[in-house]
Write a structure and sequence with these properties.
Length: 340
């Protein structure tokens, strides 16, 4: 089964990757035509459906196509998954929200990388002064498109369709941009194979429940279902991508989208608990660590606790970065802990 087949088909928001290939000059072509053909060969086109509505309005999507240069020398990235994939494919990032770059991705930054702002707010003056060739946004930074696109070609590589489809799409696109098409395809194929192995392991592991811990409270993560985009995709990865059987048939209906209690865990008694410590991911100093929160007599009575089957997932990978090549490897390694 491929990464794509691990999830349901893409929902309404469609994306497409189109590589602009230059046509060979024909006999008798003018110099202008030849120049146009050469220029076309030096760009890659990316098309996506961009939400043009204001924050408090119903989504309104507009198909947007942007041509970006091949082998850009100066890349600014606001999307951590894209920073991950660019670096994994041999690229280097000149600017990013430096305070948000995880330690394991800092090696993909240029030695003199500049701070481009935050995940939500760009330092437009600094970015313009640095004259980037390409700007990549996604997820939390998608709202920056209008401002950043005035500075340089800007593409939004947010999750669209599903986690798995987006990983494949973005790796292929960035591989084309960086001249690393074969390496991108090979890395995705390797991850597909490893995910299949992980799904074989989880198929024999009984039921599971993904739990996010924040501020001392628990939230049960749910399969993404028909809306496998953005936040839903993140919460559903453990089920949708890695094949864990949910301990609760309909998590959303069972929880009403609200925090759950320790008694909820005992009532539904999954064989495995898959835990993300949100506070650790965001660097919040509020609340106890997830392990301390779950260390109580009620949780101790669950099957997961009795059998030492509470798995603590890499919080940065599962909550902040999810979707990059190196990060997907980290996620696979997390799941494969239960095979040891």
């Amino acid at each position: 089964m491929s990464l794509r087949s691990a999830l349901r088909p893409a929902p309404a928001v469609a994306t497409a990757l189109v590589v602009a290939l230059g046509l060979s000059a024909c006999g008798g072509s003018s110099e202008a035509e030849t120049a146009d053909d050469a220029a076309a060969g030096d760009t890659v086109s990316f098309t996506w459906d961009r939400n043009t509505a204001a924050e408090d309005e119903e989504p309104a999507y507009e198909e947007t196509t942007v041509d970006v240069p091949r082998d850009p020398e100066n890349i600014v990235v606001f999307d951590m998954a894209s920073l991950d994939t660019i670096g994994a494919l041999g690229g280097e990032v000149a600017g990013a929200p430096l305070d948000s770059v995880p330690d394991y991705l800092t090696g993909y930054l240029a030695e003199d990388a500049f701070n481009a702002g935050t995940l939500f707010e760009a330092d437009l003056l600094e970015i313009e002064a640095q004259q980037p060739d390409l700007i990549v946004i996604g997820g939390r930074s998608s709202a920056l498109y209008e401002d950043l696109s005035q500075i340089a070609p800007t593409v939004d590589l947010s999750i669209s369709g599903s986690f798995s489809e987006t990983l494949e799409r973005n790796a292929a696109f960035l591989g084309e941009v960086l001249g690393a098409e074969d390496e991108a395809a090979a890395k995705v194929a390797d991850l597909e194979e490893q995910i299949e192995e992980a799904r074989t392991v989880t198929a024999d592991a009984g039921t599971g429940l993904g739990v996010m811990v924040s501020g001392g409270e628990l939230s049960a993560m749910a399969p993404a279902g028909d809306d496998a985009t953005g936040r839903n995709a993140r919460g559903g990865i453990i089920y949708d991508v890695f094949g864990v059987e949910p301990a609760v048939a309909d998590v959303q209906a069972a929880t009403h989208g609200e925090p759950v209690s320790f008694e909820f865990l005992l009532e539904h008694d999954p064989d495995y608990l898959w835990v993300v410590d949100r506070d650790a991911a965001t660097g919040s100093g509020e609340g106890e660590a997830a392990q301390a929160v779950l260390d109580n007599e009620i949780v101790d009575r669950t099957t997961a606790a009795k059998n030492d089957q509470i798995v603590y997932l890499d919080p940065t990978a599962w909550y902040i970065v999810f979707g990059g090549l190196d990060t997907t490897q980290r996620m696979i390694d997390d799941v494969m802990q239960i095979a040891a």
